[in-house]
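Model: Ready when you are.
Researcher: Fold this.
Model:
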Amino acid sequence: MNTNLKFSIIIPAFNEASGIVQLLESIERLGYCKQSEVIIVDDGSTDDTTLIAAKFPVRIIKHETNKGYGASLKTGIRKSTGDKVITMDSDGQHDPYYLEKAFALLEEYDMVIGERGADSFHVKNRKRGKKLIRMIGEYLVEQKLPDFNSGFRGFDRNLILSMLHIMPNGFSFSTTSTLAFLKEGYSIGTFPIKVEERNGRPSNVRFIKDGTKTLLLLFRIIMLFNPLKVFFPASIFITILGLGWGIHGFFVFDRFSNSAIILMTLGMFLFFFGLIADQIALLNRKKE
């Protein structure tokens, strides 16, 4: 590890009093509390998360109210002082043993992601949503995605700071950051990790509630990263459909129907809406 670089480890926590102890014990035992800056962002916990974290040599930042996973990461990144930042979950799923590999890769790549292997713990009812997001994401950025929503990842701090304005406050921070780095052409390195089942309280993710959020996320990433990839095919399809319907009406009923004209006009409008949306998306992604 390059001793000239300073690393910050950011751990968001919400009501993780029963799960965070093991993680912090491991981090301290491996010496990272001395080698790096360890930041715990307590996202409005109502239990003893802050009191337990305070027993360790870490920096604690507390939200007065629960703002969300992404908001906690944004707070930690803004308050960090390292050249590189690593994010980890506080529920014991991520093993600090892999930090050394992440540190090493961050000297070479702009972003690094801990890719979960087949032997890692997975929540079964999230697989379909993740598969759909992966399909849409790969279509938009036109390349294969790494483990796009793994919470164990690292960034060049200056680069992720320049993108915080487009990052969501919710659970989709990981997905959005992956797509943003790929879309902007930054390098991404991966390393294999094994994720364990979470400790402590049950997960906050719920099938119906977060299934709706997943659909909204799909629309969001489409409009943010490549809206023309959706608007253009839709406009071509509707225009051809209208033209075909009009030609059919001309030969069968001796007239070009109004419905065909409406469809062709809609196709034209969709194309121009796509152009406008693409320019707005480009401005939104522009570095601050």
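Researcher: Now this one.
Model:
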Amino acid sequence: MLANEKGGLILALAGFALLSCGDALIKTMAGQWSPLAVAAVRFTIGAAGLSIFLLIKEGRAAFRPQSPWLQAGRGLCLAIATMCFFAAIFVMPLAEATALIFLAPIITALLSGPLLKERVRPATWIASIMAFVGVILVLRPNLSELGPIALLPLGSALSFSLMMLANRAVAGQGSSLSMQVFVAAGAAPVLVLCTVAGAWSGAERFAVSWPDWTVIARCAVVAVSASTAHWLVYLGTTRAGAATIAPMTYVQLLVAITLGWLLFSDTPDVMTLVGSSVIIAAGLFLWSRGPEQSKPVTE
């Protein structure tokens, strides 16, 4: 039993680390193509690949969702979260953007009250205050240098939290693979439409031209690596349990800091590291008070 749990932890750690590796690969495309186009290609490839697997494994019946509008909402939330995060890491240090994404578990816990009629416990408010302090510390240098664009990771965390709440609403309506297909297939067309709108806007940042083949290749690699990462986390959860592997998600931040330093020469200052630590501490505190409302979440 102990060996099985240890194996589950290793699988989950590998999955969470792989997610940050994918984020770093996305950041290498900064200035080479529109972040909206990168997101659209990444999810179009991902949705197509996952759909093929679902068709082979479960057949055509698996493509009929029980709650189409909720599934569409999941896709919309994921599309917004992805656009905000990709746009953020194109201009922000990877570690800072990743740290702010870890607000998602706390936002999810707060919103579960008004949206799902769940009781918001005192521990949630304590964690929220802690996280708010951490956010101020992380944003401090970025707001002064980048302006409001530094708030993009917060928009990503909020959208991701709404997706997680929608995930609760559709729990049990299909296999984990079909749930991945529905959310990716819902996000892809939204991202394509936003890419077209961005290109028509005339904004240089969102201009779309024919990209170098390596851009498409990197999008494909990220699509495969993200799906593999989610599969590894799923396997880890089945072996060690969700409560055991939940804190392991914070390895993403450690990997993001390391890759940001090695690949992009981004060295977080002391206050940024302190703020990141406070956000992590808030998430771990919330997790320690009970697994139902405190699982750190990632996509």
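Researcher: Key takeaway?
Model: The chain has one domain: 2-294.
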